[in-house]
């Protein structure tokens, strides 16, 4: 109980204290996964009452792609950029579904600003405090009266380095273009159906003339991007859409995490500053507000990074980017995918 006593001077809602005590009991009993049981989440109800009304669900061609955060009462919504494709619709807390327009994108933070035709919306309240310290309890707001999930800060905000993307193939030079000699298990190439002896002739409609040229082009993309390859297979042309994945994860065989622990976010590296917490999120639950026990928004969830790690952009890192998006300094552009 030393962790609870460390925060004893704080004035939190009684329900939040009950949640902390209940969670502590569950964790000490060795059942950390039970923290997302309804009885635990229900104790955090007061914490997410206001943030939930400022949360939207972003649909892409009818598919649940991400959550979004209302950042201005006149219909501005911040969300995760790399998950956006097709026709955008925002499902509001009050049940309305409104078509959204893409206003701007910040690739570095993987944030997109959307505009919906609505006013008098409840904008979120950013926390002005320093990012919560390691060990702090956090709740992820959704469109329900209880949190989607709860977690604990595990690592203080830090830069998450951009990792090298890869197709997941070993290639050699060939007379007609780079030739695939081996396809790595669980890679994007394997999932797309690429095979040994396929000859890569085009990438996103542009000719591929050498192994070196292909590697340099791929290095200019990000893990999570999807590229369209044209290959020759037995003299026949074949098209394959390949999701680029982290080279280190492929080489170390780490992609099995998605099989045993659930799907990870396609874009989960390369953030200028991110707070790490142990909340178990789905990729389509990123983009929404992350709140402390005061109900203040301390950040926006931006990626599920591993089986027991999710990243959130701290409020202090989001605010200057948001101002640039609002001012039109980061013009609308099609996200990477």
Mean pLDDT: 87
Number of strands: 20
> Low-confidence spans: pLDDT under 50, at least 5 residues?
1-9, 27-32
Task: Give the C-alpha Rg.
Answer: 22 Å
Helix content: 10-25%
CATH topology of the largest domain: Thrombin, subunit H
Provide the structure class: alpha+beta
Most strands sheet: 6 strands, antiparallel, barrel
Number of helices: 9
Walk across the major sheet and give the strand order. Answer: 1-2-3-6-5-4
Q: Note the gap between the termini.
A: 46 Å
Based on the structure given, which CATH architecture of the largest domain is correct? Beta Barrel
Indicate how many domains the architecture comprises.
Answer: 2
What percentage of amino acids are in beta strands?
A: 35-45%
CATH class membership of the largest domain: Mainly Beta
Shape: elongated
How does this structure look, described?
This protein has 337 residues and is an alpha+beta fold. The chain has two domains: 1-158 and 272-303 and 316-337, Beta Barrel (Thrombin, subunit H), CATH 2.40.10; 165-251, Roll (Pdz3 Domain), CATH 2.30.42.10. The chain has nine helices and 20 strands. The model is unreliable at 1-9 and 27-32 (pLDDT under 50).
In brief, what are we looking at here?
The protein has 337 residues and is α+β, with helices and mostly antiparallel strands.
């Amino acid at each position: 109980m030393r962790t609870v006593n460390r925060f004893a001077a704080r004035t939190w809602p009684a329900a939040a204290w009950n949640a902390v005590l209940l969670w502590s009991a569950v964790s000490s009993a060795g059942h950390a996964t039970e923290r997302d049981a309804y009885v635990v989440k229900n104790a955090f109800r007061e914490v997410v009452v206001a943030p939930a009304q400022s949360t939207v669900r972003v649909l892409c061609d009818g598919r649940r792609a991400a959550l979004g955060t209302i950042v201005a009462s006149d219909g501005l919504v911040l969300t995760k950029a790399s998950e956006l494709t097709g026709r955008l619709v925002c499902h509001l807390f009050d049940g309305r579904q409104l078509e959204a327009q893409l206003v701007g994108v910040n690739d570095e933070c993987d944030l997109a600003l959307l505009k919906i035709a609505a006013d008098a919306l409840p904008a979120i309240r950013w926390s002005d405090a320093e990012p919560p310290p390691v060990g702090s309890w956090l709740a992820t707001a959704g469109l329900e009266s209880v949190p989607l999930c709860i977690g604990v800060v595990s690592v203080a905000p830090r830069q998450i380095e951009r990792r090298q993307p890869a197709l997941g193939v070993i290639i050699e030079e060939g007379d007609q273009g780079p030739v695939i000699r081996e396809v790595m298990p669980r890679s994007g190439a394997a999932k797309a159906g690429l095979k040994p002896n396929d000859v890569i002739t085009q990438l996103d409609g542009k000719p591929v003339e050498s192994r070196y040229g292909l590697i340099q082009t791929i290095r200019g993309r990000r893990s999570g991007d999807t590229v369209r390859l044209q290959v020759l297979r037995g003299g026949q042309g074949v098209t394959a859409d390949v999701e680029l994945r982290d080279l280190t994860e492929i080489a170390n065989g780490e992609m099995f995490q998605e099989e045993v622990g659930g799907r990870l976010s396609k874009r989960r590296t390369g953030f200028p500053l991110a707070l790490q917490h142990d909340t178990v999120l789905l990729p389509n639950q990123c983009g929404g507000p992350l709140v402390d026990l005061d109900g203040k928004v301390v950040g926006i969830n931006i990626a599920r990074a591993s089986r027991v790690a999710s990243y959130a952009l701290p409020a202090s890192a989001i605010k200057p980017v948001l101002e640039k998006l609002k001012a039109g300094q980061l013009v609308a552009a099609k996200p990477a995918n």
